[in-house]
Design a protein that fits this description.
Helices cover 67% and strands 6% of the residues. With 187 residues, it is mainly alpha-helical. The chain has two domains: 100 residues, no CATH class; 58 residues, no CATH class. Strands 1-2 form a two-stranded antiparallel sheet. The two termini are 40 Å apart.
Protein backbone atom coordinates (compact mmCIF):
# COMPACT_ATOMS: atom_id res chain seq x y z
CA UNK A 1 0.00 0.00 0.00
CA UNK A 2 1.42 3.36 -0.99
CA UNK A 3 1.17 6.15 1.53
CA UNK A 4 0.27 9.75 0.72
CA UNK A 5 3.35 11.80 -0.08
CA UNK A 6 2.21 14.77 2.03
CA UNK A 7 -0.21 15.11 4.89
CA UNK A 8 -0.94 18.77 4.13
CA UNK A 9 -2.15 20.25 0.84
CA UNK A 10 0.49 21.53 -1.50
CA UNK A 11 0.49 25.25 -2.28
CA UNK A 12 -0.98 24.70 -5.76
CA UNK A 13 -4.09 23.00 -4.34
CA UNK A 14 -4.52 25.56 -1.55
CA UNK A 15 -4.07 28.51 -3.89
CA UNK A 16 -6.70 27.17 -6.26
CA UNK A 17 -9.36 27.54 -3.57
CA UNK A 18 -7.87 30.53 -1.75
CA UNK A 19 -7.61 32.62 -4.90
CA UNK A 20 -11.32 32.20 -5.68
CA UNK A 21 -12.36 32.83 -2.07
CA UNK A 22 -10.19 35.96 -1.77
CA UNK A 23 -11.74 37.39 -4.93
CA UNK A 24 -15.25 36.62 -3.70
CA UNK A 25 -14.68 38.01 -0.21
CA UNK A 26 -12.50 41.07 -0.94
CA UNK A 27 -13.24 41.73 -4.60
CA UNK A 28 -9.68 40.98 -5.75
CA UNK A 29 -6.44 39.47 -4.47
CA UNK A 30 -4.80 42.90 -4.56
CA UNK A 31 -7.44 44.32 -2.22
CA UNK A 32 -7.00 41.28 0.07
CA UNK A 33 -3.25 41.92 0.22
CA UNK A 34 -3.78 45.61 0.92
CA UNK A 35 -6.35 44.79 3.64
CA UNK A 36 -3.98 42.34 5.32
CA UNK A 37 -1.16 44.88 5.26
CA UNK A 38 -3.38 47.63 6.68
CA UNK A 39 -4.73 45.34 9.40
CA UNK A 40 -1.21 44.62 10.61
CA UNK A 41 -0.24 48.29 11.01
CA UNK A 42 -0.13 50.09 14.34
CA UNK A 43 -2.58 52.93 14.91
CA UNK A 44 -1.08 56.31 14.06
CA UNK A 45 -0.55 58.87 16.82
CA UNK A 46 -3.30 61.44 17.39
CA UNK A 47 -1.29 64.28 15.90
CA UNK A 48 -0.46 67.73 17.25
CA UNK A 49 -2.05 70.02 14.70
CA UNK A 50 -5.66 69.80 13.44
CA UNK A 51 -4.62 68.80 9.92
CA UNK A 52 -2.45 65.91 11.25
CA UNK A 53 -5.22 64.92 13.69
CA UNK A 54 -7.74 64.68 10.84
CA UNK A 55 -5.33 62.78 8.57
CA UNK A 56 -4.37 60.33 11.35
CA UNK A 57 -8.02 59.85 12.38
CA UNK A 58 -8.90 58.92 8.78
CA UNK A 59 -5.91 56.55 8.64
CA UNK A 60 -6.90 55.01 11.97
CA UNK A 61 -10.46 54.47 10.67
CA UNK A 62 -9.09 52.71 7.55
CA UNK A 63 -6.85 50.52 9.72
CA UNK A 64 -9.73 49.62 12.03
CA UNK A 65 -11.99 48.82 9.06
CA UNK A 66 -9.22 46.61 7.60
CA UNK A 67 -8.78 44.83 10.95
CA UNK A 68 -12.52 44.16 11.19
CA UNK A 69 -12.69 42.84 7.64
CA UNK A 70 -9.53 40.74 8.03
CA UNK A 71 -10.80 39.35 11.33
CA UNK A 72 -14.07 38.27 9.61
CA UNK A 73 -12.01 36.59 6.90
CA UNK A 74 -9.85 34.70 9.41
CA UNK A 75 -12.62 33.70 11.82
CA UNK A 76 -15.58 33.01 9.50
CA UNK A 77 -14.54 32.43 5.89
CA UNK A 78 -11.10 30.85 6.18
CA UNK A 79 -12.03 27.99 8.57
CA UNK A 80 -14.89 26.89 6.31
CA UNK A 81 -12.60 27.16 3.31
CA UNK A 82 -9.86 25.11 4.99
CA UNK A 83 -12.21 22.17 5.49
CA UNK A 84 -13.02 22.27 1.73
CA UNK A 85 -9.32 22.48 0.88
CA UNK A 86 -8.48 19.53 3.14
CA UNK A 87 -11.29 17.43 1.65
CA UNK A 88 -10.15 18.26 -1.89
CA UNK A 89 -6.61 17.33 -0.86
CA UNK A 90 -7.72 14.00 0.61
CA UNK A 91 -9.64 13.21 -2.57
CA UNK A 92 -6.66 14.13 -4.73
CA UNK A 93 -4.22 12.12 -2.60
CA UNK A 94 -6.52 9.06 -2.71
CA UNK A 95 -6.63 9.32 -6.49
CA UNK A 96 -2.84 9.87 -6.72
CA UNK A 97 -2.01 6.93 -4.46
CA UNK A 98 -4.32 4.65 -6.47
CA UNK A 99 -2.86 5.91 -9.77
CA UNK A 100 0.73 5.48 -8.56
CA UNK A 101 -0.01 1.96 -7.34
CA UNK A 102 -1.45 1.02 -10.73
CA UNK A 103 1.51 2.52 -12.54
CA UNK A 104 3.97 0.69 -10.30
CA UNK A 105 2.14 -2.58 -10.81
CA UNK A 106 2.29 -2.18 -14.59
CA UNK A 107 5.81 -0.72 -14.66
CA UNK A 108 7.25 -3.40 -12.36
CA UNK A 109 6.20 -6.15 -14.77
CA UNK A 110 7.56 -4.28 -17.77
CA UNK A 111 10.85 -3.34 -16.14
CA UNK A 112 11.40 -6.78 -14.63
CA UNK A 113 10.55 -8.46 -17.93
CA UNK A 114 12.89 -6.15 -19.81
CA UNK A 115 15.65 -6.91 -17.34
CA UNK A 116 15.15 -10.66 -17.81
CA UNK A 117 15.30 -10.29 -21.59
CA UNK A 118 18.49 -8.20 -21.64
CA UNK A 119 20.28 -10.60 -19.25
CA UNK A 120 19.33 -13.62 -21.40
CA UNK A 121 20.46 -11.74 -24.50
CA UNK A 122 23.82 -10.93 -22.88
CA UNK A 123 24.38 -14.62 -22.13
CA UNK A 124 23.47 -15.63 -25.69
CA UNK A 125 25.61 -12.88 -27.25
CA UNK A 126 28.60 -13.74 -25.05
CA UNK A 127 28.45 -17.40 -26.15
CA UNK A 128 28.10 -16.59 -29.88
CA UNK A 129 30.41 -13.63 -30.41
CA UNK A 130 33.15 -14.12 -33.00
CA UNK A 131 36.82 -14.10 -32.03
CA UNK A 132 38.03 -10.66 -30.92
CA UNK A 133 34.55 -9.32 -30.08
CA UNK A 134 33.39 -8.53 -26.55
CA UNK A 135 30.50 -6.91 -24.75
CA UNK A 136 31.42 -3.43 -23.55
CA UNK A 137 28.24 -2.57 -21.69
CA UNK A 138 24.50 -2.98 -21.60
CA UNK A 139 22.02 -0.32 -20.63
CA UNK A 140 18.26 -0.82 -20.28
CA UNK A 141 17.47 -2.28 -23.71
CA UNK A 142 20.78 -2.09 -25.53
CA UNK A 143 24.00 -4.02 -25.67
CA UNK A 144 27.18 -2.36 -26.88
CA UNK A 145 29.73 -4.72 -28.43
CA UNK A 146 33.29 -3.99 -29.55
CA UNK A 147 34.77 -6.03 -32.41
CA UNK A 148 37.31 -5.86 -35.23
CA UNK A 149 36.02 -3.98 -38.31
CA UNK A 150 36.07 -7.10 -40.52
CA UNK A 151 33.76 -8.91 -38.07
CA UNK A 152 31.24 -6.05 -37.67
CA UNK A 153 28.49 -7.54 -39.88
CA UNK A 154 28.80 -10.98 -38.28
CA UNK A 155 28.68 -9.42 -34.81
CA UNK A 156 25.63 -7.36 -35.78
CA UNK A 157 23.78 -10.50 -36.90
CA UNK A 158 24.73 -12.37 -33.70
CA UNK A 159 23.52 -9.45 -31.61
CA UNK A 160 20.15 -9.11 -33.39
CA UNK A 161 19.42 -12.84 -33.38
CA UNK A 162 20.32 -13.11 -29.69
CA UNK A 163 18.03 -10.18 -28.80
CA UNK A 164 15.13 -11.73 -30.74
CA UNK A 165 15.69 -15.16 -29.24
CA UNK A 166 15.94 -13.82 -25.67
CA UNK A 167 12.77 -11.78 -26.11
CA UNK A 168 10.83 -14.63 -27.70
CA UNK A 169 11.65 -17.06 -24.88
CA UNK A 170 9.56 -14.91 -22.50
CA UNK A 171 7.15 -13.20 -24.91
CA UNK A 172 6.66 -15.60 -27.79
CA UNK A 173 3.43 -14.06 -29.08
CA UNK A 174 4.66 -10.44 -29.02
CA UNK A 175 6.46 -9.12 -32.12
CA UNK A 176 9.80 -7.41 -31.60
CA UNK A 177 11.87 -5.10 -33.74
CA UNK A 178 15.54 -4.48 -33.08
CA UNK A 179 17.95 -1.97 -34.49
CA UNK A 180 21.66 -2.62 -34.69
CA UNK A 181 24.18 -0.04 -35.80
CA UNK A 182 27.77 -0.40 -36.80
CA UNK A 183 29.70 2.65 -35.66
CA UNK A 184 33.41 3.47 -35.43
CA UNK A 185 32.95 4.45 -31.75
CA UNK A 186 30.17 3.80 -29.27
CA UNK A 187 27.88 6.69 -28.38
Amino acid sequence: MLLPARSQPIKKVSNKYLSVALKQFFGSEAIATKTKRLASLLNPPDGKVPKAQQKNAERKARIEAARTLWNRWETETLPALMSRILQAWKDFEAWRVNWDAQQLLINYKIQAGGSDVIRKAEILVEKRLPEGARILLSNNDEICVSCPCEKAEETKDVLQKAMHEAFNTDYDDVPIATEAEILPTWK
